[in-house]
Request: fold
Amino acid sequence: MRSGVANTLALSAKAALIVTALSTLSACISMAPTYERPAAPIAGTWASDAPAAPTASTSAASQPAATLSWGEYFADPQLRSLIETALANNRDLRVALSRVEQARAVYGIQRADLFPSLGVGASETRQRLPGDLSLTGNPYISSQYQVGLGLASWELDFWGRIRNLKDAALDDYLASDASRRALELSLISQVAQTWLSLREYDERLTLAQQTVDSRAESLRIFTRREQVGSTSKLDLTEVTTLWQQARALVTQLEQQRAVQAHALQVLVGAPIDTSPRALDRTVDDAALMRDLEPGLPSALLEDRPDIIAAEYQLRAAHANIGAARAAFFPQITLTGSVGTASSALDGLFKAGSAAWAFTPSINIPIFQGGRLVNNLDLAEARRVESVANYEKTIQGAFRDVADALSARHWLAQQVTILQATQDAQAERARLAKLRYDHGAAAFLEVLDAQRDLLAIEQQTVQTRRALLSARVSLYSALGGGSRLMPAADAPGGPFARTPRVIVPSTQSVSGTATAAPAQPVQ
Reply:
């Protein structure tokens, strides 16, 4: 019995060595085209109408957005709390995380095809053979017992078809993870923008309500004056009109604020208090966010998650071309088993009971009705689409940053001008009221001055919020915090939830050294 077991183990060891050798031989050739990052279709500097220099509202201690996490960039504790809650509860982000896990599982499935499938099996067969079919002419019952290690149909990947499919699945997984990070950055931006909008509406409502109260007092005074005959009915009607206009503005702002509050509830994904008294409006605008240095446009290629995702999709398209090319070559598959067999159960492990089977097969494609050619054409066409999508993503990112830089610069100047205009308009309204009280001007002059004052107050608040929104947009457009994304699984690798990356230097299409896209540490 020991001799039989030893023979079986020896055969299993030899089979394992053969499988290992064949695995090594099958990892020799790749039919995929050599990948080169396409040249970025953007200028080397930002546009002249989008100044990159810090504005008056920023300080000298500006930092690149990619090295500044959202917790460091947003200084307000209430806003940070809302963002943290949104990252934990937002349903769109949960969907994105689920898609990353699906892509990770697909990669694992595809990667498993590189290795042989081994299994231990045991079987028993009993059959009765009738006399007219037996050599002796007498019926008999036969038994067969078998235990062995089986090799399922395993394709030797001589031409790199399976490895290219594995690489494509890996790139799809990494692209989905980068898309998840892009969605996360977008969610952070949306929460911040909606929170700023609520603060804007609260400030505008405060100004509008103060105007309503002031005009209500004026209406009371003019009503009394009209009753005693010291003012005309026309003046009373104009005061009433001003009061009703202010009340209408309050109701409009309340409705618009409610829409923003509902949007924030959905973004956060959990019940929160969005009442005016719950929002912190005491923080100065300049202290809400850190200062940013945009750097060079080329940094977008490594910092923007959507660009990183587009490049991984382009790499996957290259790998799929290799798989389509390899399909034109012969496919060699192995099937086999090694073990022990006997007609009696107690003879399974006796000397001489060793049994094995080895079935190699080769499949050479000759005619498939153009299937292989069209599969290759499809893969190459998808690569062209991926290149165009990659370049389009870069152009969109460049525009996002340029727009945000331009808005940050010009809106800062608009805020300064509007604040000076508001001060002048407040003085005009005061002087117009004095002139009317002394009989030197008609009430129409007061009416116009008060209307203009309310309009400029509302416009100033809106522009201040637009400036803050531009700073949020700039952080998002620059790929904020992308270099600080921690790995969820300590060792990293292709099965880490957020892979650790290395960025080697490679040669671009133009021949200049560029940073290669991030690859997982194997």
